[in-house]
Amino acid sequence: MLVPLGLLALFVVGLAGLALSTGWGETFAHIARIGPGQLALLLALSLVNYLARAIRWHMMTRRAGLPTRPGQSLRHFLGGFAMSVTPARLGELVRMRWLYRETGRPIEQTAPLALLDRAADLGAMGLLLALAVAFTAGGGQVALWIAAGAVALAYAVTRPALMNLLVTRAWRGIGRFPRLFARLRRGVRVLEPFAGAGIAAPLLALGAIGWLAEGYAFHLLLAWLGADIGAAAAVAIFMSATLAGGLTGAPGGLGGAEAAMMGLLVLQGVPADMALAATAIIRVTTFWFAILTGIAVFPLAERLSLRVEHAR
């Protein structure tokens, strides 16, 4: 758990440096305006996001034929947040380790669920971004391109035939590691039950509900700080910044998400010190709250998975 603490320290140092350039007093005056009740509401909306996506995770594991229970899936999903600070969130594959211990399903057969989970997030956020931009005065071509790219990528990784074609082309091009490519082909088969609209629509809907909750939290925060730019613009900025942070490949999008969010707020006419305060608060109540939740649940998930494995 030293990595999350180290990155948190870098996050704090980075924001402190920005506060020096924008004015300590003004920035902290804005932060001080958010009371305990308002902070609790922001955290509650983040919990809506986590719970909606945990329900989606349970639906995916059951659809893949795993004998999981709701509480078990919730434990796995939340515990995986502790590893969100790894590059491209690869550490969240720890959920596959817990599934292996508790169900006996090989990791190569469950790992595609992590890909599907990220694809569902991309698709949901891309759709929300497109809708938010459509309702924003003037719109934004860059945001629409990001939205289109996210939806296209989400569609591609949930097409088993397309994924199988890519694996086959890669195998023919490389001509080595036959066992690895055989495992990849078996993993692609896990995606087959998710190809239809009947399951894709609920997965996207749950993701949209979750991410919209955090986007709305950002809107509320800006209004409380005195920078009400409208719900559509707030949601568009939140989704754009989150997606942009993910594209950097940095752990948790750290640095990229904050820079994008601040820059987009300033372009909307929000003063730099207020934009910094809003960015700091929303990142703490969404991203860092998720990590703290994961750190709290991780030991329980690890202990129970070992207990089930020993009992099998």
Automatic annotation (TrEMBL):
<keyword id="KW-1133">Transmembrane helix</keyword>
<feature type="transmembrane region" description="Helical">
    <location>
        <begin position="218"/>
        <end position="247"/>
    </location>
</feature>
<feature type="transmembrane region" description="Helical">
    <location>
        <begin position="119"/>
        <end position="137"/>
    </location>
</feature>
<dbReference type="Pfam" id="PF03706">
    <property type="entry name" value="LPG_synthase_TM"/>
</dbReference>
<feature type="transmembrane region" description="Helical">
    <location>
        <begin position="31"/>
        <end position="52"/>
    </location>
</feature>
<keyword id="KW-1003">Cell membrane</keyword>
<keyword id="KW-0472">Membrane</keyword>
<protein>
    <recommendedName>
        <fullName>TIGR00374 family protein</fullName>
    </recommendedName>
</protein>
<keyword id="KW-0812">Transmembrane</keyword>
<dbReference type="GO" id="GO:0005886">
    <property type="term" value="C:plasma membrane"/>
</dbReference>
<feature type="transmembrane region" description="Helical">
    <location>
        <begin position="188"/>
        <end position="212"/>
    </location>
</feature>
<feature type="transmembrane region" description="Helical">
    <location>
        <begin position="287"/>
        <end position="306"/>
    </location>
</feature>
<feature type="transmembrane region" description="Helical">
    <location>
        <begin position="143"/>
        <end position="167"/>
    </location>
</feature>
<dbReference type="InterPro" id="IPR022791">
    <property type="entry name" value="L-PG_synthase/AglD"/>
</dbReference>
